[in-house]
Amino acid sequence: MNYNESLSFDKEICFHLAEDRERHLGSVVPPIYQNNVFLYKTHESISQAENDLAKHYIYSRGANPTVEIAERKLAALERGEACRCFSSGMAAISSILLSSLKSGDHVLCVSNIYFSTIDFLKYMDKFGVEHSIIYSTSPDDIEKEIRANTRVIYIESPTDMNFRIIDLRAVAKLAKAMNIRTIIDNSWATPLYQKPLTMGMDVVVHSASKYLGGHSDLLGGAVIASKEIIDQVFSKELIMMGAVMGPHEASLLIRGLRTLPFRMKEHQENALKIASFLESHPAVEKVNYPGLPSHPDYQLSKEQMTGYTGLMSFQLKQGTYEAVRDVINKMKLFKIGVSWGSFESLIWSPNLGNNAVELKKQHINPGLIRIAVGLEDAEDLIGDLDYALN
Length: 390
Ligand SMILES: *Cc1c(COP(=O)(O)O)cnc(C)c1O
Fold this sequence. Notes:
This protein is α/β, with parallel strands linked by helices. The protein has 2 domains: 3-256, 3-Layer(aba) Sandwich (Aspartate Aminotransferase, domain 2); 259-389, Aspartate Aminotransferase, domain 1. Helix content is 41%, strand content 15%. Helix 8 (190-193) links the parallel strand 5 (181-185) and strand 6 (203-207). Helix 3 (65-77) packs parallel to helix 10, helix 4 (89-100) crosses helix 9 (227-241) and helix 11 packs parallel to helix 15 (378-389). The longest helix is centred in the last third of the chain and has 20 residues, at 260-279. It is globular and about 75 Å long. The site of pyridoxal-5'-phosphate has 12 residues, from helix 4. Its cofactor is pyridoxal 5'-phosphate. InterPro entries: Cys/Met-Metab_PyrdxlP-dep_enz, PyrdxlP-dep_Trfase, PyrdxlP-dep_Trfase_major, PyrdxlP-dep_Trfase_small.
């Protein structure tokens, strides 16, 4: 399938797939099944349903028809067999990691990973699960870091903060040969621009709080994988820990997906203009954005992604806390805040003024500023950056 065919298929998924409109009186948008309990006519019928929780609506800490629409769309967008949604990205990530690991196992993290994911892996120490991080992105170096007890290779591509690209096909291949599960956080690229399961990754996780929702009004997460992996995480971690997505959040997510193809196109166009502007600015040392031809992984990014989104970072020549603070405080259109993936442009830096040692350990430049390019006018955003940088 080429990119255009893939995009038209993805639009069809966002607009129409899994809506079952005839079941819902012709409603063009699905109703919100806000109920937590579903009724049965007889004891026999509920008993039968309870033997297969995944296929029956019984109690909403399990399958819910509204949530299921979002799940079927996300599975289709990622070209995966199945999906389950969670109450947040971290609920999805912690659940699939718990599902994939047992005491004595090791997780290999490749390069920079979302900080709460690393915090969760540190927390897992007390259950006898160890992890290590390799900062090189080369598949040969990754292979050398695999231990006898490595059960999971965990990836973000582009990587957190530094936006390097990992060769997904190469990592999937070496992991498969050693029977190691590969998990990738695909929140940055979204399934529109990167489909890791088609390149051999085993599991995709998402924070739906970012681009998938797209309006800063919901928290959610998703895991997409084979039916076998999803059934496992559904019947154990999802139902037992109970971090389910609520039906109202699911309806917001379904609404967000309607405009995903259009929002991503605009994020990409704005971000490319802004990355080029930053690259030419004398106060800027370096721009970390894989859509720039000068990016060290530009070629690889072209081979495994069909587009770029709006999150990037840049490094000030003057890499001090004070310089970072002054630039951020001068911004007007870029609002100060964590998170990203929504209509509004945001600015943030991991340099908090008291964490220089930690930043160095994580290979993060002290002059690094992260921007989430939103849907405002690109010229206005450039004007804002220009003013703050001068
Ligand atoms: C925000 C984020 C998460 C966590 O998602 P929540 O919905 O906030 O729990 C995970 N991964 C990445 C890359 C993120 O940016």
